[in-house]
Write a structure and sequence with these properties.
- This protein is of the alpha/beta class and about 450 residues long.
- The protein has three domains: about 190 residues, FAD/NAD(P)-binding domain (3-Layer(bba) Sandwich), CATH 3.50.50.60; about 110 residues, 3-Layer(bba) Sandwich (FAD/NAD(P)-binding domain), CATH 3.50.50; about 130 residues, Enolase-like, domain 1.
- Helix content is about 30%, strand content about 25%.
- It has a five-stranded parallel beta sheet. It has a five-stranded parallel beta sheet with strand order 9-16-10-11-12, with helices on one face. Strands 20-21-24-23-22 form a five-stranded antiparallel beta sheet, sandwiched between helices.
- Helix 3 runs antiparallel to helix 4.
- The longest helix has 25 residues.
- It is globular, with a radius of gyration of 24 Å.
Length: about 450
Amino acid sequence: MIVVIGGGPAGRFAAGRLGQAGREVTLVEREAIGGQCLNSGCMQVCALNDAARVMERAGDFAAAGVLDGAPHLDFSALLCEMGEVQRTIRRVLERETRAAGVEVRYGATARVDGRRVFIDDEEVEAEAVVIATGSAPAVPDLPGTGLASVYTARTLHTMPALPEHLVIAGGGVSAAEFAYIFSRLGSRVTVLARREFLGGLDPRLRRLALKELSGVEVREHTPLTGITGTSEADGAAFGGAAPGACQADAVLLAVGLVPQTAMVAGVEKGSHGEILVDGRMQTSVTGVYAAGDAAGPPYLTPIARLQGVVAAENILGHEMRYAPQAVPQALALANDLAFCLGDDGDDGIALSLPAPAGPGSFWSVPKGDTGLGKILVDPETGALRSVWAASPGAGITATYLAEAMRRKKTVFDLEDLIDVHPLAEGVHGLFAQAARVIRERDAEKEDPKSGPGER
């Protein structure tokens, strides 16, 4: 028997692959299948962001006189219906997992001590084990974090009403996404960022993100130092160059994730509790593998799935290495802000332009916020190095262009691309422009006396 601990993306993909190969597999899930992605991560953001975009668009229509007033949001109903949809998805995932030949054990507690595996404190014989126990929202050791109206992404679904003033601690993707959501649903939002807000984002995407977060108060280099209140939060204290405090009736902690590995002993771990693995996703103990967030950053669902598959393939005796390249990412605000960064440096030809109006962005024209497209191209070969896109469907754009990057496609391969029209993204028109720039430069090198009009 092979034991897989955790029913999130990494565990489910590992278990499914092993089950499909005819192996006896037991998947142990303490809570609910789908892991953080379904239950408190990606899908929760999707649900709430959909509502936030509807409310923002309705406000635009009301301001333009198209709608007679903006609609009223029932926040409790939103959370309730979100939960119903999540339950439906869980039923689908469970059917898929069992159909692959996997036994699913809910409510059981599993732990690992070196090569020994225990389920509900009963030792079981396992030929291999995959640890896919995921991660949990980080909770800083600060006064007041245990108050009733302090939330993380995992407890957000228990929020009884839409906060009048929400303070969000964090400066990354999660903080930005929740800032957009709650500001558009009707809360006053203050973000306390320890460092620069969205500091790792491409400058143009960052400027666009800040524009899409209009109305949100973002305080950079202002770490949360404590939460005040008796039974519930009534304010947040902050440090930085100008320390102080602000009122709030709820605080959302979005300061990162930590691996959930307390139930694992006898294997090497990193400084944050992440399980150390090699390229085969094997731990320091032969036959014990780890995948997904339990193995540390980057805490991305597609990476977790891939790692689960790599672990499974190696258990089956098929040599496979975890070596991802050109991984696309995105954050969801009014637009999807997506990007895929290559590892060939940033000294190429960079071209950008505003995204055109199209599905989901036509009514953004009056605000001048239809998004953007940007590419970085190798100046010699024309190979696509990096891509950035902001549009309602930019994640799809980044997904397929990431594959083009992995396959070393050039702008000459892509310059004749025929797009579906109308399409609300600004990247596809840049390929021909980049190809033309390189051809003109090469022609000038061959004949320095020729001018642009002679080429």
